[in-house]
Amino acid sequence: SEWLAGRDPVVAAIAVLRLMTLAGLWYVAAMAAVGVVLRVVRADGLVAFADRLTVAPVRRLLVAAVGVSFASGLPPALAAGASIPRPPAVVYQLPGATTATPPPTLTMRVVPAGEAPATPAAPVSAPIATPPPAAAIPGAAAAAPATAVGTTWVVQPGECFWSIAEDVLTKAWGRAVTDAEIVPYWRGLIEANRARLGDRDNADLIFPAQVFTVPTPPGAP
Question: I need a surface site. Which of 8, 30, 37, 137 has the fewest CB within 10 A?
Fold first, then answer.
């Protein structure tokens, strides 16, 4: 009280704040030092107790600082110059293989200045998908001969039952045919080849090289 009475209130307040700041800094420094030491010696029980007495920002800072120091520090064996034993090599072997073959390794080196880098190997291109062989298509011929009008018809790319019916009638009658004239023969052509379709309910799904039966066209009206 005598100390406060003999000083200006502003000066006294600043002095009190200074003392409180110093006390807080000393507290933080002491708890930080204790926390670092306990974490280094791995005293987990005491670390938990010290963390309860440490403010959250300081506690997070300690965890981060100690983690970085452990990650970047050298192991004691290296610091002492001792050699660290290498782990045993892992050998991979596929089921059914007679010999164990290790996985391929990647070797990297620094190219000296002035030396041309090695040309990388050409990338392996993916195989190009090819259409299924004619033998895998229902009703396909072994080899697709030229289109013929008669008892059979070998399907060419882009053809359908409608175009086949139109072509057959046009060649049989020697003139252009109308849609009304094509419809009856087109329906009979589909029914005559229903068993040769990959999907009996989908007459639009036909494949090149399929061989269809061509009914005898009727006489020209």
Answer: 8
Q: Which helix (H) or strand (E) holds 76?
A: helix 76-79
At 149-203, the pLDDT tens digits run 458 899 999 999 999 999 999 999 999 999 999 999 999 999 999 999 989 899 8
| Buried residues in 146-178 as b, exposed as e (16+ CB within 10 A) | eeeeeeebbbeeebebbebbbbbbbebeeeebe
Q: How confident is the model over 9-35, as pLDDT tens digits?
A: 888 789 888 989 998 888 878 877 877
Furthest-apart CA atoms within the chain: distance in Å:
136
Per-residue DSSP letter, 211: E
- Of 200, 202, 166, the closest CA to residue 183 belongs to 166
Q: How far apart are CA 208 and CA 143, in angstroms?
A: 11
Supply φ then ψ for residue 213, to 5 degrees: -80, 130
Q: Indicate the pTM of the whole model.
A: 0.35
CB 214 within 8 A of CB 151: yes
Under DSSP, the state recorded for 134 is G
Please, how many CA atoms are within 13 Å of residue 104, restricted to the half-sphere of its CB? 2
